[in-house]
């Protein structure tokens, strides 16, 4: 789906309590990171890239996505890093609190959180159903806010700073047809990122966000169906039109986003805060 962050079911409604499954592959104490919605797509690419960078990873997803999430944990294990799997719906604050506690208990002090989980849906603004409006904000905004809040409190408790990295979107910079509420949630994340950066600077916590453009993930098929139902274009035409609007002339891949997150999670970004960085091949310019 154009501009859709690639984890349709990565943080949606599961009322199950936070559960853990741990995989330990190294006795070396290193930095740790939580990546929400890490079972597939962009979240998976981020988790694997950060593991290659030397992080131990708390892989978060819904229990319904356990097969994919376990596969990610096993891939991290094969890279020689520690990993745990924490099931949580990020739109539920108690589950986010349990997730962060589990990460700290199993992996040690938290250094970075990547609030990646989110959902998407195409529709016209005048046709938006209340249930869709509520769920998009619950996951895409509340889920980021809760992740940021709980991680920030942990960073302050530890007294050694930390890094918060949020999932925004190119749609948070400019409007796109059929994505009015999705875009609103991502614009809200961009604003939240700036505000929290100001609040948390005194605690040596940086807060930044990444804003993907069109990223080639399995969610594209569903997105194309939703868009075709609205505009009646042939199958795949929305995809082609989107690619034609990208300055670099190609669709993005999850690893493009993971490279940016790698920078934001590293010491190289220590003097960067309050920024939402586009990774869109030239769809929007700031």
UniProtKB/TrEMBL annotation:
Which domain of life does the UniProt lineage start with?
Answer: Eukaryota
In terms of InterPro entries, this protein maps to: NAD(P)-bd_dom_sf, Sc_DH/Rdtase_CS, SDR_fam
One GO biological process from the UniProt record?
Answer: fatty acid biosynthetic process
- One GO MF term attached to the UniProt entry: quinone binding
Does this entry carry the keyword NADP? yes
Alphabetically sorted, this entry's keywords are: NADP
Family, similarity comment = Belongs to the short-chain dehydrogenases/reductases (SDR) family.
* Protein name per Swiss-Prot or TrEMBL: 3-oxoacyl-reductase
From which source organism is this entry?
Answer: Rhodocollybia butyracea
């Amino acid at each position: 789906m154009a501009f859709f962050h690639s984890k349709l079911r990565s943080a949606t409604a599961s009322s199950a309590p936070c559960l853990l499954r741990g995989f330990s592959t190294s006795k070396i104490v290193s930095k740790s990171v939580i990546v929400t919605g890490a079972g597939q797509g962009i979240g998976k690419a981020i988790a694997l890239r950060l593991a290659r960078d030397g992080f131990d990873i708390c892989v978060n997803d819904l229990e319904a996505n356990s097969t994919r999430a376990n596969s990610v944990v096993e891939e991290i294990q094969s890279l020689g890093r520690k990993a745990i799997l924490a099931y949580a719906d990020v739109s539920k604050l108690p589950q986010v609190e349990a997730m962060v506690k589990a990460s700290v208990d199993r992996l040690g002090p938290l250094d970075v959180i990547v609030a990646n989980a989110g959902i998407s849906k195409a529709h016209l603004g005048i046709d938006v159903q209340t249930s869709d409006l509520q769920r998009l904000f619950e996951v895409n905004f509340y889920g980021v806010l809760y992740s940021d809040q709980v991680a920030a409190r942990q960073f302050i408790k530890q007294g050694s700073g930390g890094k918060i990295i949020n999932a925004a979107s190119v749609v948070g910079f400019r409007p796109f047809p059929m994505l009015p509420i999705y875009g609103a949630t991502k614009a809200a994340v961009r604003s939240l990122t700036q505000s929290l950066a100001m609040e948390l600077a005194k605690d040596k916590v940086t807060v930044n966000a990444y804003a993907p453009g069109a990223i080639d993930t399995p969610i594209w098929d569903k997105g194309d169906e939703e868009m075709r139902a609205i505009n009646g274009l042939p199958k795949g035409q929305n995809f082609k039109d989107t690619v034609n609007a990208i300055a670099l002339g190609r669709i993005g891949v999850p690893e493009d986003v993971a490279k940016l997150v790698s920078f934001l999670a590293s010491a190289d970004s220590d003097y960067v805060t309050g920024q939402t960085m586009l990774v869109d091949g030239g769809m929007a310019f700031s």
